[in-house]
């Protein structure tokens, strides 16, 4: 039985399915701050970019000024990078007097209150997201939350779950998949 990631890794490396790993899907999340005159923007998320609560590809992260670009799960890496580039290009044209800050570390922040917490509206989900971010600000500080980065997501190809690696499993359940990913 496959009971941990290390065990799975060893089995994959020593199996005929290792060549299928390149057919897994990946996604990218890129966070970037909107900056105006070397300070974090105080402007609201522009409506022309869609609702940060509902848009699948353009949203905000911790701060109202912290954009998050999200690609769908894709197999082809070039398509994923082109998708991300197209989002970036589109947003660059929407933000007018601002720029998309290219660095992970934010520009100079004099006070935590200079980092506006993201606002998603008045629905229950929107208020939950804002409340959650308020909690993060109390726990870690707004300045720390303004650090931006890139997140890479990968999912194993479906062929893996149907392979001989799992012959001792009666069914590849969601619980087993979650255990392997963790």
Automatic annotation (TrEMBL):
Catalytic activity: L-cysteine + L-glutamate + ATP = gamma-L-glutamyl-L-cysteine + ADP + phosphate + H(+)
Pfam families, per database record: Glu_cys_ligase
One Gene Ontology MF term: ATP binding
Keywords: ATP-binding, Glutathione biosynthesis, Ligase, Nucleotide-binding
Residue span(s) of domain Glutamate--cysteine ligase: 13-182
GO cellular component, one term: cytosol
Pathway: Sulfur metabolism; glutathione biosynthesis; glutathione from L-cysteine and L-glutamate: step 1/2
BP term (GO), one: glutathione biosynthetic process
Coiled coil: none
Keyword ATP-binding included in the entry's annotation: yes
Enzyme class: ligase
Keyword Ligase belongs to the record: yes
Enzyme nomenclature, EC number: 6.3.2.2
Protein name: glutamate--cysteine ligase
């Amino acid at each position: 039985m496959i009971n941990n990631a290390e065990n799975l890794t060893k089995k994959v490396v020593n199996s005929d399915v290792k060549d299928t790993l390149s057919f897994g899907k990946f996604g990218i999340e890129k966070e970037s701050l909107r900056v105006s005159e070397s300070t974090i923007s105080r402007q609201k998320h522009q409506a022309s970019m869609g609702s940060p609560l509902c848009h699948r590809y353009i949203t905000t992260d911790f701060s109202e000024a912290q954009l998050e670009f999200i690609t769908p799960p894709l197999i082809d890496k070039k398509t994923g990078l082109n998708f991300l580039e197209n989002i970036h290009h589109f947003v660059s044209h929407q933000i007018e007097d601002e720029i998309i800050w290219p660095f992970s570390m934010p520009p100079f922040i004099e006070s935590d209150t200079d980092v506006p917490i993201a606002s998603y509206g008045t629905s229950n989900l929107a208020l939950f997201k804002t409340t959650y971010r308020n909690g993060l600000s109390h726990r870690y500080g707004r300045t720390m939350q303004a650090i931006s980065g890139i997140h890479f997501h990968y999912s194993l190809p479906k062929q893996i779950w149907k392979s001989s690696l799992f012959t001792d499993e009666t069914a590849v359940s969601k619980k087993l998949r979650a255990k392997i990913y963790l």
